[in-house]
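[User]
Um, C-alpha cells okay?
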Amino acid sequence: MNNQPLIECVPNFSEGRDMSIVKQITDAIESVEGIKLLDVDPGKATNRTVVTFVGTPDLVIQAAFLAIKKASEVIDMSKHQGEHPRMGATDVCPLIPIANISMEEVAKYAHKLGEMVGQELDIPIYMYESAATRPERKNLATVRAGEYEGLPEKLKQAAWKPDYGTAQFNPQAGATAIGARDFLIAYNVNLNTTSVRRANSVAFDIREKGRIKREGGIINGKIITDENGEPLREAGACKSVKAIGWFIEEYGVAQISMNLTNIKDTPLHIAFAETEKSAIRRGLRVTGSELVGLVPLQVMLDAGQYFLKKQRRSVGVSEAELIKIAIKSLGLDELGSFDPQKKIIEYQLKDATSTPLLNTNLQDFADETASESPAPGGGSISAYVGALGISLATMVANLSAHRRVWDARWEEFSTWAEKGQELKDALLRLVDEDTHSFNAILEAIRLPKGTEGEKKARHAAIQAATKYAIEVPFRVMEISLQSFDIIKAMAEKGNPNSVTDAGVGALCARAAIHGAFLNVKINAGDLEDKKFVKDTLAKGEKMIQLADTLEKEVMDMVNGKL
C-alpha cells in the first residue's frame, strides 16, 4: 500500500452496550478484503461505539456502506438512550485523508458514499465539514441539532432537505451525517466531581466558542448583545476545540468531552493543561483522561516532550519513553489500560514484516547473523554498530543533562540527546533496509529472461537494485559521520564520569563507516553507471579519512582524562 491513496473511516454507531450487535457491524467491515480494522471503542454511558478502519478509497467506501447497512438493521433508534448527542444508528461517518490523497478527493468519495446510502438504504444523509453542500451544514453540531427526536419535524423543513436519500423519517435508522475532515481527536478529561454544571463551566473556559457574555460576569446576569441583538461571546482558551461537560455513570465521575479538530492549533497536551488550569481555579482537580479511538504518534511524542520540559529534563529519550511519559502525565491509564500498539495509528498500520531484524532480540539477531543465510551481513551489522555508537553518546548527553551540579545546562545537553536519538533511529531503520537492498538484487536476478524484452527489463532491474545496494551503506556512512559531532562534544563537555562511553561510541562510529564502505565498494563493481561509482567512491574515501581523524581526536580527549 506504500504509494496507494489511503483514507481512514471513523463511523460512530449508536450502540455501546450490546457487543454482539457491535460485532455484527465490525464483521461487515472486515468482510471487505484489504480493509484493516484498527480500533473498536465502545462506551456504555454514551451507548455509542467509535470504530476506526483504513484502506484504499474504494474499499473504504464499500466497507462503510456495509457497516451503515448492517447498523440500520440491528440498531433501533426508537429505543436508543445515551449521553452523547446522536441522530442515527450510524450517527456520523467521516472520511479522513491519511496518505497520497487530497481533502478534495476524499470529499468526492464521501459524496459517493452518501449517494449510495441515500439511494439504496432510504436513510436521510447530510454532508458535513469539507463535504458540506452549503456553509450552514459544515458544522456537525448544527447538522445534528435536535438529534433523533427532532428529525420528524426537521425533515419537513425545506432548509433541512437531506443531501441524499428521501426526506422521509426512518424511525429505526434515523439519519446519518457523512463528511470529509482532517484528523480529529476525541478526548475526555476526568474531574474529581460528579457535577455536570461544574464540568460545563470548565468546558466553557477551554472550548473555542467559550460562553455567552453576561453583565457582571455572573451566570444569571443579563446577556450582552451586539448592535444586531446577537449574544456576544467570551472566547475560550483553546482554538479548534469543542467541549461539553457530562457525567459518566460507568466511572462515577464528570468529564470534559472534547473534540480537537486541529491539533496544530491546540495540541492534546495544551488542551489537558488548560483544563487543569480551569479546574484548579474552580476548586476541582483533573484526575486523568481518556482517548476515544486512535491518535497520531506525533501527538504522543509532543506530549511526552512537553511534560519532560516542564520537569526540566532531557527530551532526548527514546520514542517508547516519550510515550510512557505522555501516558502517565495525561493519566490515560486511569480508567483502563492504554496500549500504545493498539491506540497509536502508525503502530496499527506498521508492517512488522518490513523490519524483521529490529523485531528480534539480541540473541536471535546474533544467531541469524551467524547462520548460513547471507543476510543480514556486513551492511546491516555496520548500521547497527553505528546505532550503538550514537546511542552511547546520547546516553552521555542524558546523564549530563541530569547531573545535579549542571542543572542550568539541562537544555544544552537535551538538545544534543535529541539529535542523537534522531541519528540512532535513522541508523536502526537502515539495519533492515540493507537486507532489503540485498534481497532486491536477488529478486531482480530471478526475473524471467526468455524474450528480448524480458532480458532488458531484468537487466534494468538488476542495475537499479545494485545502485540501491550502494546507496544504503553510503547512507550509513553519512549518518555515522554526523554522529561524531555529538560523540566529540560529549567527550569534551559531557559528564566526565562517562567519558569512556563517548570513546567507545567513537570506535563504533568509525567501525560503522569502514564497514559500510566495504559494502559500497563490493556492490560498485557491478554497476554500469561509472560516473556514479567514481563520485561515490571518491566521497567515501574522504569520509573514511575524516572518520579516522575524528576518532583519533576523540580518543586523545578520552585518554587525556583517564
Summary: The mean pLDDT is 93. The two ends are 54 Å apart (CA to CA). Residues 387 and 424 are 5 Å apart (CA to CA). The first strand starts at residue 6 and ends at 9.
